[in-house]
Amino acid sequence: MKFDFLDKFIAQKEQMERDHQVLIEREEKALEELHKAKHEYETALTNSLRDGKDETDKLDHLDEKINEAKAKYERRQRERMVHSSIYKPGISADDVVAAFNTEFYPKFNEKVAQPALDKLLAMKEAYFVAVSEYEATVRQFNAEKNYAISELAPKHQYQLKAIELPNINEVEKYYIQKSEVR
């Protein structure tokens, strides 16, 4: 079972990041254009002064180009800032938490977790029944053994076999140990 609502939230977040990245790239491109225009202006100004040529028209044109590039760059900055400040996600983090707790959790608990817990409980009950049955078997055997011992000479009582598990390895084989849980 999958929490699909989270996929919608992630898709929305990724789309917002892509949109924001587009705005950042547009701003960076406008900044590059501004730097390029300034560089052209500086180069033209330096060349005109060095060569002694009157490049007033060219410099005026380049100055307009700088102003246009600067205005474009400032517009791009405002676009990015305004986008970041006015962007309202359709799905908020609070919506994700609410959907998880009120929709996903109850369904998951009912269809997945509770059946697993029910199996654990059934297995636990079956284990305790099996332990009780084994202990009853041991008591029944020991009653018969004790009756036989009472009728035999003391030297024979140790020759009768026992049904209890003979050592810790056998006990650990059949009984659930704390170290085996979890």
Largest sheet: none
Query: How many angstroms does the end-to-end distance come to?
Result: 23 Å
Strand content: under 5%
Query: Any low-confidence stretches, pLDDT <50, length ≥5?
Result: none
Q: Please report the number of helical segments.
A: 4
Kindly name the structural category. Answer: mainly alpha
Q: Provide the residue-averaged pLDDT.
A: 93
Number of strands: 0
| Percent helix range | over 70%
The sequence of SSEs as H and E is HHHH
Gyration radius, to the nearest Å?
A: 42 Å
**Outline:** rod-shaped
In short:
This protein has 4 helices and no strands. The protein is an all-alpha fold and 182 residues long. Helix 1 (4-51) runs antiparallel to helix 2.
Question: What can you see in these coordinates?
Answer:
With 182 residues, this protein is mainly α. Helices cover 80% and strands 0% of the residues. The protein contains 4 helices and no strands. Helix 1 runs antiparallel to helix 2.
Structural topology:
Elements: H1 4-51, H2 56-86, H3 93-151, H4 168-174
Helix pairs in contact: 1-2
Structural key phrases:
mainly alpha; 182 residues; 0% strand
